[in-house]
Each structure stands twice: as C-alpha cells, then as structure tokens.
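Much of our argument rests on the idea that a fold can be written as discrete symbols. Part of our work consisted of pairing the sequence of a single chain with a tokenised description of its backbone. No coordinates are needed to read the tokens, only the vocabulary itself. The record that follows shows the chain in one-letter code together with its fold in token form.
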Amino acid sequence: MPAADNAAADAADDVPRRLFPLPPPGTPPPAALAAAPTSLLATPAAAAALAAAAASAAVCISATVRINAPAAVAFSFLTRPSTWSRWNSFVPVVDVVAGAAAPPAPPPPPPATTTAPAEAPPPPEIAAGSRLRFHANMSAHSPAPSKSKLLPVAIRVDEVSTPDDLGGGNGDDNGDDNGSARRRRRLWRVVWTGELPLPAFMFSSPGRVQELDESPDGRSCVYRSWELQNGVAAHATRMLYGAVLDKRFLEWAADLKRISEDPTHANAPLGEGERSKGKI
C-alpha cells in the first residue's frame, strides 16, 4: 500500500503503531515545512501531501490505535488536563496559563414524563486560544520523575472541535476539502503548537494534530496523532530526543486507550474512578 494511502487508512490495531515511518538517520532538514493539510480526512492528494511532508521532516512523530470506547469519552479525557495525572505518562502535569474553556450552561431539567438522558462526558477544559504549560517526561524511563525534573513546554491551543462544531454526520471521506470531509466523518480534533520564539529557519511546525474518528456504530474510534517539525532546532531535537518522543507518542496513545476503555473511569468526574477503587 502506498505511504499516503497507508497513512489515511483506518487503524484496525489495538496496539499503538506509527502513522508515518521515522525519517532515516542523517536526513537533512529543509529550512521550513512546506504547506501541508492538518487532517488525514481530506482528498487523496491532500493525504499524499501530508505523507510527503512527513517523509522530509526533521522530526516526524506519530501514533494511531483503535479505542474500544465512544470518541466522546476519549475526547473528554484528552481535553481535560486536570485528568492527565491519572493516565498520561508523557505529560502528567499541565498548568492552564490562560484561556480555559468557559463552563457550559446547565441543561434544562427533563420533562416529568420522559426518562432522563444518559450522562454525557464532562466538557473540555481548554479551547482554541488557551495557553498551557506542559511538564513533559523526557526521561528515557517511563515512570514520571518529580515535577522539578519534568521539561516545561509552552503550548498554544489552536483547535478544539467536535462533529457538532462542524455540522458533522456519518458518511464517506471523499469530500473536496478538509471541512466537507470532516462533516461526513464524525471527527473530534485537537491541535496545539509549541510556542518557541524562533524564526522559521530555526523551527517550524504546523502543530501536533490529534483526531478521534468514530466508527459508524459509535461504539469505538480510531485515534491518530502526529507532529512534524523542521529547522535547525528541530534537527537538534531529533538527535537529543527523537527516540524518546517516538516512544512517548506511542505511550500517549496506549494511555488514552486504557483510560477510555476503563469502565470505572469513563464518564466519571475527576476522582470518582479512584474513589470507587478506594485510592482516595
């Protein structure tokens, strides 16, 4: 299967794998990333452009896995940094610096003659424009060290979207642009970018993209995540942290799958899963 087609195909694996192969050692980084779509759910030409950008990037880290839980459940954990200490071994600590999502208005009470609807997962804690400070575990070992030994990274959230935001519905992905493809595929997306005060020849990246592509029956989803970087700083990042970042992206996918599929945590507010197990 060609690289572009393979990148766009749904992952059927319950074990995390890469979307794109790692760049071969010694690949010279271009001065800046060429324009590339930020979604796999676009035209075949767009998928090919993304695969080509991945092949030439100084840093190309990616992961995909099937999650046997509704996309809304996984999205809730992904967009609530207050839960990350429970499941995220890569970024166990997050500070919301600015722009936290506004709490939603309480829903009206159901009519007395109807059955109350099933409880929805908690809403996102972040929104486009939020500023976060990740404390990332860049150790070669998986267990997270103390906060003082985590690497702080400034993050700007560029997109937090659900199918409702885009008028989403089920269907194929043969649209002629990213928007129409997303409207027919029930897709949840989060995109954020590391804020580095560097010129483009030093560092360029379209950000880290994370997508949850829901199955037609709504009972499972495919998680995809990738980040491409170029420039002198990105080349240094690959040499210093390339293997660690590759491992951490795969662990992030596995961690999100585990927490989303755990029935003691799904849909539970922070702390309920631990209380049910007597941990707090």
Q: What stands out?
A: The first strand starts at residue 59 and ends at 67. Residues 1-11, 29-36, 170-179, 266-280 have pLDDT under 50 and may be disordered.
